[in-house]
From TrEMBL:
<dbReference type="GO" id="GO:0003676">
    <property type="term" value="F:nucleic acid binding"/>
</dbReference>
<dbReference type="InterPro" id="IPR002999">
    <property type="entry name" value="Tudor"/>
</dbReference>
<keyword id="KW-0347">Helicase</keyword>
<keyword id="KW-0469">Meiosis</keyword>
<dbReference type="GO" id="GO:0031047">
    <property type="term" value="P:regulatory ncRNA-mediated gene silencing"/>
</dbReference>
<keyword id="KW-0744">Spermatogenesis</keyword>
<keyword id="KW-0943">RNA-mediated gene silencing</keyword>
<keyword id="KW-0221">Differentiation</keyword>
<dbReference type="GO" id="GO:0007283">
    <property type="term" value="P:spermatogenesis"/>
</dbReference>
<dbReference type="GO" id="GO:0051321">
    <property type="term" value="P:meiotic cell cycle"/>
</dbReference>
<keyword id="KW-0378">Hydrolase</keyword>
<feature type="domain" description="Tudor">
    <location>
        <begin position="495"/>
        <end position="589"/>
    </location>
</feature>
<dbReference type="GO" id="GO:0016787">
    <property type="term" value="F:hydrolase activity"/>
</dbReference>
<keyword id="KW-0547">Nucleotide-binding</keyword>
<keyword id="KW-0217">Developmental protein</keyword>
<dbReference type="InterPro" id="IPR011545">
    <property type="entry name" value="DEAD/DEAH_box_helicase_dom"/>
</dbReference>
<dbReference type="GO" id="GO:0030154">
    <property type="term" value="P:cell differentiation"/>
</dbReference>
Length: 647
């Protein structure tokens, strides 16, 4: 057989080399004179010089491939293929293709497939292993959450297969999984497009995709779609007026009756028999000139089963329940046109909704204005002005902290919530809050040398200011300016350690069983042997399973190191007034001009781990571009390493 066959075998399966009963004269590596370039080929090509035979095709995913190249087809080839099938069944079982091809010059077997034909066939073959379901999420956390839930639901089954793609380190090394095939692919939009274009649609394409799911569809449509067209309602006949209280329902009903309008009434004071009677009266046929108007209270509306109203009037907006406001629209269900409906609908049958508002509803104007915009309704100019005034009031609300996204990225990136507000934090600078007198010592320009004590995320740290250079303060000091060394923290720590080093007394005794700390008060906590931190009490909460005062725990903020923790009340130690009044020495630091990839909202774990290894407990140097209160924005922020002097 060796004289008749010039044989070469290339495979990725280690089992091909693990059998001892293969004749030594069939050792494939001895048949090549030149260096072998082992590749997996996924395509058959029929030309005049070729004689191909499909050996095996399984329904499993493509994992391996056996390619047999011969100078001509002989009778011994059949026995050889039987030998391969018997000896290397793992390769055949887990392969979609195993090929035998005849070619004149075996040492150049890697060139027997034309590149253009190979690429064309790859598109056909790869489409067989592409996702059936594509789930798009606007953030990497949303994609990972869906993936975890999917794996939890399918943990007892090998199919369907699921994969996840998002930026920030997760997409690395996913090519093998995608080539092997996934049934459900969860990804962020920009990451998916990047992978598709990177591999020219060979690793991922959507030719087999049957279902597209949009998670967090509001933000996806807002961020990644230019236009959204929504249907607008028109006039109908039957009308429902919804109110949130019993008194409002009675008031509206009396008003309609005084105008000689045929009105029905539903409220929570009616017995069930009366509710059924009103529902039957509504369902009875009426003339167009005397169509009924139903005044219904929210908590009894579901019992009436009204679904064919043509006009919906919101007399007020329920403040404590978003469900009630949404359920009101079920009255229009039978008149709502399906997106699958063919042809033009009669405008007279389309539903119509009205919303009655006054300046007393200013606190709801922002949510409602956004809701009206999303459903394609026109926002009246007066109502739009009321919503803008409410937004300005919220932007400078002194009771809310400054938005974290605004501090990190210069703009709020929070997605819209179900209540309509993207973010409840403050988005405007208040001088009394953001520039208090207690922080006048922080530098507003020049360069600073900091020591990072706590990392919050990839660009947000807590640090000590060790040194400051400000050329504007002293132009005669040279290019770098006069250096100002900050030793306030070290002096305060020495004083606090000396205070607790005195033996006796009640300095090392925490709060008693019947004592409760003052929220906002400053105390000390011993975090290690003879090592104390100043902490500020944020809140007091009971320990899980405990109700007594001894089971209470306090959430505290470490003023001089950054970060929060929960401690037992007995660990809180009193401080002298001078130490308690000192400002926090841990300064918030933001690194400018850095943002998560693919317009995401939060940093991935890989990005945070990388940042942690680069900056935590390191000395960095940065240029101050902005200072607000206890916060510094630095650009650039670098780590300086000085080379040793060589002789």
């Amino acid at each position: 057989m060796k004289s008749a066959l010039d044989l070469g075998i290339a495979t990725r399966c280690r089992d091909l080399q693990s059998f001892s009963d293969v004749p030594s004269d069939l050792e494939p590596y001895t048949q090549f004179e030149a260096e072998i370039d082992f590749k997996t080929v996924f395509v058959r090509q029929v030309l005049q010089e070729y004689s191909e035979a499909l050996c095996k095709r399984a329904s499993r995913c493509l994992l391996n491939q056996v390619v047999v190249c011969t100078s001509r087809w002989t009778e011994g080839m059949d026995s050889l293929l039987r030998l391969l099938r018997a000896q290397h069944s793992p390769v055949v079982l887990f392969s979609s293709f195993a090929e035998a091809a005849v070619y004149a010059r075996v040492p150049t077997f890697v060139r027997y497939v034309d590149p253009k034909a190979r690429d064309a066939a790859l598109l056909v073959v790869c489409a067989m292993f592409q996702p059936l379901v594509l789930v798009l999420s606007s953030t990497w956390k949303g994609a990972q959450r869906i993936y975890d839930q999917f794996k939890l639901l399918t943990q007892d089954s090998k199919i369907p297969k699921c994969g996840v793609l998002y930026a920030g380190g997760s997409e690395a090394g996913k090519e093998v999984q995608l080539v092997n095939g996934v049934d459900v692919l969860i990804a962020t939009p920009l990451c998916l497009l990047r992978v598709m274009h990177k591999y020219d649609h060979l690793v991922v394409n959507l030719k087999r995709c049957c279902h597209l799911v949009l998670d967090d569809g509001e933000r996806l449509i807002e961020e990644f779609t230019e236009e959204v067209k929504l249907l607008e309602g028109s006039r109908g006949r039957k009308a429902v007026v919804c109110t949130s209280s019993h008194e409002s329902a009675l008031k509206v009903h009396r008003l309609l009756q005084s105008e000689s309008i045929f009105a029905l009434l539903l409220h929570d004071g009616l017995p069930m028999v009366s509710v059924r009677g009103v529902a039957n009266e509504w369902a009875a046929p009426h003339k167009d000139t005397c169509a009924p108007v139903l005044v219904a209270q929210d908590n009894i509306l579901s019992w009436a089963g009204i679904r064919d109203a043509a006009v919906l009037v919101h007399y007020d907006v329920p403040e404590l329940s978003r469900f009630n406001f949404g359920f009101r629209f079920s009255c229009l269900a039978e008149r709502m046109r399906s997106f699958d409906a063919k042809g033009d609908s009669d405008p007279r049958d389309s539903p119509l909704a009205h919303l009655i508002l006054t300046r007393d509803n200013a606190h709801l104007s922002v949510q409602l204005a956004e809701f009206l915009t999303r459903v394609g309704a026109k926002v009246p100019p007066a109502f739009e002005q009321l919503a803008n005034e409410e937004l300005q009031r919220r932007a400078c609300n002194p009771e809310r902290p400054l938005c974290a996204h605004l501090k990190s990225f210069g703009r709020c990136l929070a997605p819209p919530t179900t209540s309509g507000t993207a973010c409840r934090d403050r988005h405007g600078v208040v001088a009394a809050l953001d520039r208090p007198r207690g922080w006048r010592h922080l530098p507003t320009s020049g360069e600073v040398r900091i020591f990072v004590t706590k990392m919050v995320d990839a660009t947000y740290f807590y640090a000590w200011v060790l040194e400051h250079w400000d050329p504007a303060a002293d132009p005669t000091a040279g290019k770098g300016g006069a250096a100002v060394v900050h030793t306030e923290f070290q002096e305060a720590m020495l004083e606090m350690n000396a205070y607790f080093a005195v033996p006796g007394g009640d300095r090392h005794i925490g709060l008693g069983e019947n004592e409760s700390p003052v929220v906002g008060g400053v105390y000390a906590v011993e975090v290690d042997a003879d090592q104390f931190h100043r902490v500020q009490v944020v809140s007091v909460m009971p320990e899980s399973g405990g109700v007594a005062c001894s089971s209470l725990r306090a959430e505290v903020f470490h003023m001089d190191h950054g970060g929060s923790s929960k401690v037992a009340l007995r660990r809180l130690l009193r401080l002298p007034e001078r130490l308690a009044r000192l400002p926090p020495f841990a300064v918030e630091v933001f690194c400018c001009r850095v943002q998560p990839q693919d317009r995401d909202l939060e940093w991935t774990f890989q990005a945070e781990c990388t940042s942690h290894s680069l900056v935590t407990e390191k000395e960095l140097v940065g240029k101050v571009v902005l200072c607000l209160g206890n916060t510094l924005w630095l650009d650039p922020l670098v780590k300086r390493t000085y080379l040793d002097r060589s002789g």
